[in-house]
């Protein structure tokens, strides 16, 4: 799927009151419950990064547990909606950008990236994005990843999904825990994984995909 088509798709979905049914769908509520549990497995978070905030449903759950939280999303409308949803907190920083363009010298104790990476249009961009995330993760820090499975993502027209990304992440990080969330429809089947950074700061450039 091209960048332009992806952007147009996200823009249409964000026009809805509850895009992706993140508030009223039992499957999505369970996914967020498990995401939060994995994110807080190491206790309160000093510096957190959420990549892709949608309309802020998970941001609202994560924010109270972070001393500082940085949130990025490629869609300005998503940032706007998430800001309104979380305006009672002042410790959140926002950036309307994607992971490939995002730049910071800060290292994060926690990075959360869920249902985002499959929007990247090819494996080169996906591997570059994963490499950037690993470099931003503090030694001993945790990365929580979630995605629909490879087969589902390819059915949606994306290049890859959970199994592919997990394989790349394990080149640099240690998998700690894995959870499967499954709903009533064929599209409601995702893997959530918590990784720990053992201290390395990059993934091999020519490792397996």
UniProtKB/TrEMBL annotation:
Family in the record: Belongs to the NodS family.
Name recorded for this polypeptide: Nodulation protein S
Species per Swiss-Prot/TrEMBL record: Bradyrhizobium hipponense
Keywords on record: Methyltransferase, Nodulation, Transferase
Function: SAM-utilizing methyltransferase involved in nod factor synthesis.
A GO term, aspect molecular function: S-adenosylmethionine-dependent methyltransferase activity
GO biological process: methylation; oligosaccharide biosynthetic process
Pfam families: NodS
Entry-linked PANTHER family: METHYLTRANSFERASE, TELLURITE METHYLTRANSFERASE
């Amino acid at each position: 799927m091209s960048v332009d088509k992806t952007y147009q798709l996200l823009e249409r979905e964000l026009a809805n009151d509850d895009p992706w049914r993140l508030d009223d769908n039992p499957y999505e509520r369970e996914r967020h419950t498990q995401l939060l549990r994995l994110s807080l497995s190491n206790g309160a978070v000093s510096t957190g990064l959420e990549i892709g905030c949608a309309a802020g449903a998970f941001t609202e759950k994560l924010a109270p547990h972070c001393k500082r939280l940085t949130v990025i999303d490629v869609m300005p409308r998503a940032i706007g909606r998430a800001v309104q949803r979380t305006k009672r907190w002042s410790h959140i920083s926002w950036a309307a950008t994607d992971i490939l363009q995002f730049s910071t010298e800060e290292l994060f104790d926690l990075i959360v990236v869920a249902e985002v990476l499959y929007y990247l249009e090819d494996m080169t961009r996906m591997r570059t994005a994963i490499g950037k995330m690993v470099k931003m993760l503090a030694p001993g820090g945790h990365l929580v990843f979630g995605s629909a499975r490879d087969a589902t993502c390819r059915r949606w027209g994306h290049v890859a999904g959970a199994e592919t990304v997990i394989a790349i992440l394990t080149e640099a990080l240690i998998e700690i825990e894995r959870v499967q969330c499954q709903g009533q429809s064929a599209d409601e089947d995702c893997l959530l994984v918590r990784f720990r950074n053992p201290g390395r700061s990059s993934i091999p450039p020519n490792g397996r995909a």
